[in-house]
Give the backbone structure.
Amino acid sequence: MANEKILDVTYPGITSWQWHATLFSILGNDENARKWIFSNYIQLRCYTINEIFTGDDMLFTDMMPGSSSLKECPYLISSLMTKEQVDSYCGNIIDFVIKTIDLNGYVYGVFDEAKILCNAEVDYKFPHELFIYGYNIEKEIFYVGDFTFGEHYTYSTVSFSDVERGYDVISAPEDHMFKDDYKGTRGLYVILKNNETTYYTLDIELIKRTLKEYLNCEDTKDHFRMMRNRFTDTTFGVDVYDKVIEQIEKQLGADEPDYDVRSLHLIYDHKVLMLERIKYLMANDYLPFSQAIVDEYTSVVENTQTARNLLVRISITEEIDRADRFAKYLSAAKETEIKVLSQVLEQLEQNA
Amino acid sequence: MDKETIKKQSLEVIEQVLPELDVENVDTSASITDDYDVNSVSIIKLLVGLEDKFDVSFEDSELALNKYASFDDVIDSVEKKMN
């Protein structure tokens, strides 16, 4: 056992939601994985859930694949380890994480980050996924990636004892990573990189099909009914813009305004990734180069970025009267995106 | 207001918004992201602080971190709005 081992990570280009930040931290720089990434993450979806911390309604917006990407990406091998397995194999979480990292495995699981990891004197739990990618025995610290320790996604360190306490206090119903699919259990993901062989080529057919579904707001989950068929209230595609506008108006119009920026940040990240995808398709001759398309889609990125930044500003200044601008920025982004992606789709069809 | 005064007062705002920085030794031409860990939230806090200090206004589109490579860029934008 070394005194210190830190597995490779690259600061992720996509930081919406911990599962995306984790996958992009591990694979973001891998050329083969980029082909899988660009073939996916096209469709957007949203639906209302109960916020796990407050119980309030929350519009949950995500790209597809969502959190299941860590299990489904062909360039990762993810093993589910129940708490019972961890206890049986190693006796405690600290040894388990160290041994896993020694075997080049990243660890991802739900920990209480409220009064344990942040040392805050609070009487509630904050169950949140923690991504662990390294350790230092002498300093008794783990290297972690998370949103909780700064204003944005950051790589930092957490002591062994805090990780242990944060792990021990989470009960099975609080382990939201496990409870949906593995009811009554809790545990961790052990994630290995699996990128030495090419498993996936850029899938132009999937890109075209999903772009169509995105533009036509069709139910992409319908293809995956073998695995999941529980949700009926999901909005897909460019209609997500309208749901998000509606949600922001609702949350800012409440007696106690809510400045939840997550849906806007997700939409912005989706546009950043789409622009990268368009440039990649042009650079690799799947699309003819067009500066006009790049420039127009850049304006989509900028409008969604402006909408997100406006909400951050309002959360600081409480200038609720600025809220009427969201619809302008997001509607402009939607209109231009439909136009540009329709052109992209047409050109991909012509090239087929 | 002359450029030096704007810079001096801007550094006071930077110190308030980013208390972890040693403002006395800040290189205002260095990268605000790579060298000073300014992020998409802290840049907005800084710009809002500068609005209050100098009675200027930043457009929504000017709140983006990628508009500013250095603190000099931020201070220049304040100066342009004042003159």
Notes: Residues 291-317 of chain A form the longest helix (27 residues).
